[in-house]
Amino acid sequence: MKKLLLLAIVLRLLVAGLLFHPDIKIYNFQSSFLSRGILDIYSYLIENKKTLPFKEEFAYFPLTYFAIGGYQWMVSPILGNDFDSWLNNASSGSVVKDPNIFRYLIVLKFPYLILDILIAFLLKKYFDDKKKGEKAFTLWLFNPFTIVLIYAFSNVEIFAVALTLIALLLTRQKRFLLASGVLALSAGFKVYPVLLIPFLFLKGKDLKEKTLIILVPILTLAAIILPFWSSLFVQSALISGWTTRIANPNFVIVTSILFFYAWIIDRKIKLFNYWFIILLFIFSFSHFHIAWLLWVAPFIVILAIKKPVLSTFFLFITILAFLIPMLYNDKSMTISLFRIYSTWYDLLPTPFSVIEKFYDPVSLQTIIQSALAGGSLVFAYKLLGRDKT
Amino acid sequence: MKKMIWFTIFSVLFLVLIVPAILGLALDIISAGEQPGYDTNKRLSIYGERGVAQKFISSGANLTAIGTSIRNPNLKNKKEVILNLYNADNKSVRTSILNGQNFQDGDFVKFIFTPIADSMNKTYVFTIFSPLAGPEETIEVFYFNLPTETILEFTYDEETYPGGFPLVTFHKPNSKFEVVKEIYSNLFSRLQLFGSQKL
Q1: pLDDT tens-digit readout, B168-177
Q2: Alpha-carbon gap: B118 to the closest alpha carbon of chain A (Å)
Q3: Domain range annotation of chain B
Q4: Number of other CB atoms surrounding residue B109 within 10 Å
Q5: Minimum-distance CB partner of B187 among A142, A152, A341
Q6: Angle at B143 between CA B140 and CA B144, to 5 degrees
Q7: Which of A182, A231, B96, B171 could join B111 in a cystine, given CB atoms 3.0 to 4.6 angstroms apart?
Q8: What does the pLDDT read at residue A288?
Q9: CATH code, B30-171
Q10: Does the predicted TM-score (pTM) go above 0.80?
């Protein structure tokens, strides 16, 4: 086990140090203001837009700012004196040519490594059967998909993912109230776990518990976001482009069907199934960011261990889900990840531009997403209907 | 599970070691450097007979394209934009013609032409005109007044100034493997530098 863990860490460090997604620089630049005493980053970035080298708004919830900013402050002696000028450097060329970039990336991605390994241990704990637990542990550590998602795309979503998994473990112990609190904490990093709370509500044994399951997250989340509440916060984090893309009619319809089915028809719901299905629906019915795929990854690992016969199906839908964002007209989804090797890659066309010569890449995205939606619906039917896990 | 472990090891090593080489092999041209920074308020208008000329040194062989940022306000210019390249003897050696409708306002625009094999360290002048464009179809190039090692001087309205446009020259590599070798040697030299640093 120790050898496997060591090997897993080495593979992760390779990807962490050599592949660069510009988001890590942007949100670390934004979070660096914590060490200067800025608490309300949402207002600060918008009010100082003219003078800042980067104009992006802070799209995450407050706990992400405090976690990243706090960690950055803690490791500042390791990052060194030049780190600030690297963060403030708006030249995309010299940023990746800086020999310190390897150190910066490994140090900045180190919390993800800790959480990544924590998730592996949580997955091990999820199974009562020791062998299955070890399989889940190994499958989490040894699959290229999560390594790329976490370390190539500098995936800050991992904070919310680890907490959501803890909430899932708590629901197995029937500690629904605590689970709802952990989900709210998780939503303090990224809002998506809020979607899981209505199903948790249905698990409450009586009206009092149901009420508390709703109240606890509302109050927790209110405590996290109210100090920053303003139109600028709403504009930056709450109705950011990606968040509003989830709330499209197709997704709302399938989610409502799922919820009312659970409430009126199913009644004795298996929480895991519903949480998994709703996450799967996000990728089937909305224009998603590749980093979001991490939300569903621990669920897929659990199901792949529970139902090995479905492994090929999971591999297939994972590849489909990966293909969609790679076809966006966005270099940072593909070739730009390798800019540390050479900025000459900027001269290469994106997969979008290559496909454009033969076929409409947006139509291709739609076709793949439709196939993913079809697969998800059939799988939802299997999980909820004939084959409850 | 053993298969999955091997598959993951292979995938990660493929990603960090082989993919960059494949991408390198796909490069038909390479740039000589980064685009210099520029002040967006310093611009020169180009329309009709009003054009610009830039003197520069090609830092590599096989010069095959010149790129710079060009404004096309309100995308009004839909006329020919012509780049003429002259050698040190003022003899026209290459011409590249684009249409204004093909570039957005502020785009980095590449003028591509047949490679010039012996361009290494040679001085050239290029001009940019949009002869059929009227004043309302003006395009604009950015400029800076400090000459660099390769961007020497520019001429506008018959006056010559030091510096020039934030341009990048592009060159056709002699061999694709040379490009890949250059990519890896550059990476390893930076890794060595990183390894020799004290954390």
Answers
A1: 999 999 999 9
A2: 22
A3: 30-171
A4: 21
A5: A341
A6: 165
A7: B96
A8: 86
A9: 2.60.120
A10: yes
